[in-house]
Every structure is written in structure tokens, then in C-alpha cells.
Amino acid sequence: MVRTQIQLTEAQARALKRLAAAQGRSMADLIRGSVDALIVQAEAGGDQANRARALRAVGRFRSGVRDLSSQHDRHLVEAFGR
């Protein structure tokens, strides 16, 4: 591994420390994982590729719910209990 130094805002450092503790991982491990995810996304074409894939899915599936587009928030609450 290559040792490197980064600067975080106070808020970023606090949030990262909390997340690391909650997941039982080190801050460095979380940062390495985030960098890996960023590299994968960039190599896959980034946001443009994700947007294109999402647009290709539009209209391809049927839920059987007639008011899904107008009542999507209510259906999400029912599905996830929030």
C-alpha cells in the first residue's frame, strides 16, 4: 500500500469516525472502499452510464398498481414501513 495524507473538514472527519465505529471498520478502510467505488463508477462511464441504464429501464416493467406514478410516496411508505 501507498501511504497518503488527506485533509477532511471537521464535519467529514466526525461523520467518518462515527460510520467507522458503527461498522467496526477503520476510517482508512472506509476511504479505500470509497475510492474503489469511485474508480469503478468512473471506469463504467460514471453518471452518464448510470443515467442511460436507468432511462432504458423506463416503461419496461409493470407493477400492477394503477396509481403508482401519482402515489409513489405512499406506496414507498407502505412497502418500507416508514
Task: Summarize the structure in short.
This protein has about 80 residues and is mainly alpha-helical.
Q: List the total number of helices.
A: 4
Determine the strand fraction and express it as a percent band. Answer: under 5%
- Which descriptor suits the 3D outline? flat
What value does the average pLDDT take? 90
Estimated radius of gyration: 19 Å
Number of strands: 0
Q: How would you describe what is shown here?
A:
By secondary structure, the protein is mainly alpha-helical. It has a domain of 52 residues. It is 63% helix and 0% strand.
Set out the fold topology.
Blueprint: H1 10-23, H2 27-43, H3 46-57, H4 72-80
Tag the structure with descriptive keywords.
82 residues; mainly alpha; 4 helices
